Amino acid sequence: MPIEKAQHEIEAGFKKIKTLKPNLLTIYTQIPQALNLLEQGEAWAIPSMFSSNVIPKEKESPMKMAAPKEGIFVGPAGICLVKGGPNQEMALALIDMMLGAEMQDRLQPETFAFPSNASAKPPLGLAADVKVHNLDWAFVAKERGEWVKRWDREMAI
After folding, report:
1. In a designed cystine with 43, which of 37, 39, 78, 122 is the match (CB 3.0 to 4.6 A)?
2. Burial code of 107-136, b = ≥16 C-beta within 10 A, e = fewer?
3. What is the pLDDT tens value at each position of the chain, 157 positions in all?
4. CA 72/CA 67 separation, integer angstroms
5. Distance between CA atoms of 23 and 127, rounded to whole angstroms?
């Protein structure tokens, strides 16, 4: 099944993730919880922290970033101009700078974020030719509330 269609196979996703449950230390609800476990040495990786990346704890983990041959989905990170806000020219200059390849290249090693600028380098450890797919945001928006309730019900540790 093409990956663009697989994103709609929610039942298969829940079935698979349940098989991983016995290997989970916890399911965090706030990022600081997960970071504290990492810093205390109780956890060695945080899957799905921001962009579905696994961020290894410095050099202590043998893990590396990888992407399936089918490609990856990336979620949006946003920057916007506030309607009627002060200093519109300065705000536009900041947006322009943040969307530039140079700034995205500089931020990527710290954020592990996939760049939105096609001229920027891919995240460290990922091949330059990794296929990137967009989520069906209308589908996500419609279903997200029920997914969260189901996750809380079925995945509570």
Report:
1. 37
2. ebeebbbbbeeeebebbeebeeebeeeeee
3. 788 888 899 999 999 989 988 888 788 777 788 888 878 888 777 766 554 445 555 555 555 667 788 888 876 667 889 999 999 999 999 999 999 999 989 887 777 677 888 898 877 777 778 888 888 889 999 999 999 999 888 887 6
4. 6
5. 28
